[in-house]
Amino acid sequence: MRDKFTRREFFRRSTVAGTLATVSPSAGSAKPHPPGWRGDTRVATIATNCEMCFWRCGVLAEVANGKVLKLEGNPDHPLTHGRLCARGNAGPKLLYDPDRLKYPMLRVGERGQGRFKRISWDEALDFLAERLAELKQKYGPESVAIFPHGVAPAFFLTLMRAYGTHNMAEPAFAQCRGPREVGYALTFGQGLGSPEPVDLEETKLMVLIGTHIGENIFTSQITAFAEGLSRGAKLIVVDPRFSTAAAKADWWLPIRPGTDIALLLAWMHVLIGEDLYDKEYISKYAQGFTELAAHLKEFTPEWAEAITELPAAKIRATARAMAAAKPAVALHPGRHTTWYGNDTQRARAMAIVTALLGSWGRKGGIFLPTEIKTGKFALPAFPQPKRERADGAGTRYPLASEEQGVTNGLVDATVTGQPYPIKAWIVYGQNVLESIPQRPRTLEAISKLDLMVVVDVLPMEQIYYADLVLPEATYLERFDMPQIAQSAKQPYIAIRQPSIKPLYESKPGWWIAQQMAHRMGLEAYFPWKTPEEYLETLVRPLGVNMDVLLTKGAVAFPGRPYISDRLPEDGPLFPTQSGKIELYSPLLKQLGFDPLPRYTPIEEPPVGYFRLIYGRAPVHSFARSQNNAWLDALMDENVAWINEDAARDLRLSEGQKVILENQDGVRSLPIRVSITKGIRRDCLYMVHGFGHESRRLRLAYHRGASDTGLMTRVKVDPIMGGTGLRVNFVKVVTV
Amino acid sequence: MARYAMVTDLRKCVGCQACTVACNSEWAVPTGFARTHVHPTGVAGTFPHLVSSFYIAQCNHCDHPACIEPCPTGATYQSADGIVHIDRDLCIGCGYCVEACPYDARYINPVIKKADKCDFCWPRVQKGLEPACVLTCTAHAKFFGDLEDQNSDVFKMVYEQGARRLETSEVSIGPNVYYLGKKEDVDLVFASFPPHRPRLLRAGEVWRRYLRPLVLGAIGATFLGQAIAFFHQLRVGEDEFEE
């Protein structure tokens, strides 16, 4: 019980910068820009936002005769200013993908066969409502779990809360940002949210630890990164791979994988040992400095050199460079941070370095969120689930987010039936076979289900295991909950509205949820008829002109990004339990974890094996975009980066097709070798998201290899349940 | 009169290919083709002192374009502001210009069966819009403007910051696409993607010097032969032929 209270308190405060809670869906009427011309065609221009990834850049859709002719960046968007990446520009090829899910389908063959019959929406929704009622009666509402991803499921989450289950988990936490959010919240009292509030544009020095900006494209983050560099900011990149960012770096530190905490401790050692930290800031805002200084005594750069394989002189030089630039140091907190299972502690170490440099809340460092107070509907209270969450958020994983959940915790519960059996999965916009590691375990879990429902735009591999498949409209055909971006320097509200009517029989998420609510007697939770009505209620307190919002697509508000801007209404600067930056974490101590970050060695690859590392390519998003014809034309398969010396030893040649076999004997699809100087010889790198198994994805099927398929092992972060994924080893098998 | 140019700042460019897709979308370029390409150089140097960058390729709108002369119909022409255009009504899709370009900036569009390439988004520029690639560039690394305008970004980048153009001693036709960046990066890009000797000029020359006279000669000879045969027949009469 002791932990329960501190935990809740922790999260109440740590989600200030988080995204919207489940109570607020969205809407808006498609009020087009004044018509323009594309060639000889008169076009209407609809302002909306992108969903080719989850940065939600501003988009203008040019529409004529019910067809989207082009997507262009929206120059009026306060964050992205008309810029759009390759994926954003390729949106029409998702909309018009011939492989889209077109109508509701009911399974007729065995699970895995992928044989379905076409049914009507009425049949589909009646079927689902009946099955959910049965499950509730037989096993309790908590036996139904939902795996959402992105914005579209928001209304469905409301529906499921109203139904009575709190078992919901998206990979954005336990396979992605979770450790970072928790590590920073433990230190500063709040996490970071998305878009990341990193002041790259105004900084004097950027520090990227494994963050591959340039290959991971979030439009405005790239703009700020490039703008910062061109204004003269220095760049430190810590990465075992010579990434796009490393090629721009003043210092590239090709670190031995898994030893980042040692480097961070050595940096702290130099900052404190050489008296280079921001003394005024630390004495004013932080607690635990004495304990930290004592803790760091032995962690010299020489100690770290032996561990990280980085020269001590370089560790010192980079620490001094940071000190010289302080407080304008943008140490990027990262985004996908579930690497080795000690990830919350690594995030803590990064947060502590940030604090020592006085960069949190300062220009050129990490800036602060500004709250936007939106309107709300007076919904009835959600029923209180009778049983604890099945994913372990708050229990097994004491600091896991209850808003985002622990996907792997739900898989475990489904396999083991503990703490109680999970009987149904509703998978909504998430690809459980590509986003959650340990695929065999996920398939085992699915085999135990009475009901599996998939709501999606494309026929991803998981539909082969679904009993019911519901075709969702793409982001260009639907209203969604608007984005309330509080972590932008200038906070803003941005809408998603349809450019054209949904194609085929696809339906928007809000409609599916609303229809289900009517069938399940839960319509009180949906006290609005149209999405426009919903949006109006939401924005009413903001004094925003609806017409402006609908035409411009977004409206920004003044931000208060730096400590010097803050007003009393912004609340405490550091909403930790102590009200100060917690260099030493009493909460971690209380929960039985290291209150100060400590380096512990991770397992090394056996002889003949590489550590499997992975990342992103600029033209693809996770496993979502490989079937997009324009993006496929630019990159139709991933390759395995192998160090040139290692490749010579293995007698590999450039472009040769090989198979990767992991430590458990699991083999990949064939993948081409890319021989490079740009990677350490102890690791092998590949872009995530390839090697699709769904035959219905006619472009993506069996192109390249899946890194997720090779992740049969994970190291779970005991603090928050995140799955460390860089603990798998592969060897190269020639074919 | 304006003189248009494009500058890519390689310090900023991350090779994300937003430009490629925006351009494809803007101009309905068939899938698998492009008017603007992004080519990574690969990694050079010695570990850990490595270099890599990106070559952003498009039509250079050269001062002395290699693509105009070989065009048999006059479809390719240059306007006074330096932009090299293709008149689609005149283009017959023969592909000589494609061969001629030392930068491989042209392709034959298989849908319309005509040559196609970047025109600095002239229809957009006329309307006061930026070229599609410039607007979309995530790194804000592409700049378009008038080199005659001393206040333009491109003027400053070219004449004050030392942006360079991709030329060699062999191929020097005055490209108007410039690259700015760390010397080692620009050097690597230039060394990795040198323009090839104008196959185009050679193709054009072959057309002008040999093929065209030959074809005209052949046409002439055909007429002549027909005429001779006709008069011969008139003179000799038909009964020379046997059943």
Q: What is the CATH level 1 assignment of chain B?
A: Alpha Beta
Through-space gap between termini of chain B: 74 Å
Radius of gyration of chain B: 24 Å
The main sheet of chain A comes to: 6 strands, mixed
CATH class of the largest domain in chain A: Alpha Beta
- The percent range for helix content of chain A is 25-40%
Provide an overview of this structure.
The complex is a heterodimer of chains A (735) and B (243). Chain A is globular and about 70 Å long. Chain A folds into 3 domains: 2-25 and 101-174 and 374-556, 3-Layer(aba) Sandwich (Rossmann fold), CATH 3.40.50; 198-366, 3-Layer(aba) Sandwich (Dimethylsulfoxide Reductase, domain 2); 610-734, Barwin-like endoglucanases (Beta Barrel), CATH 2.40.40. Chain A has 735 residues and is of the alpha/beta class. In chain A, strand 5 and strand 6 (116-118) form a beta hairpin. Helix content of chain A is 29%, strand content 17%. Chain A is built from 22 helices and 27 strands. The termini of chain A are far apart. Chain B has 243 residues and is of the alpha+beta class. Chain B has helices spanning 18-26, 96-100, 122-126, 132-136, 153-160, 183-192, 199-236; strands at 4-9, 37-40, 44-46, 49-51, 54-57, 76-78, 84-86, 107-109, 114-116, 142-146, 164-165, 177-180. A 4-stranded mixed sheet of chain B has the order 10-1-12-11. In chain B, strands 2-5 form a two-stranded antiparallel ribbon. Chain B starts with a strand and ends in a 7-residue tail after the last helix. The relative contact order of chain B is 0.19.
In short:
The complex is a heterodimer of chains A (about 725) and B (about 240). With about 725 residues, chain A is an alpha/beta fold. In chain A, about 30% of the residues lie in helices and about 15% in strands.
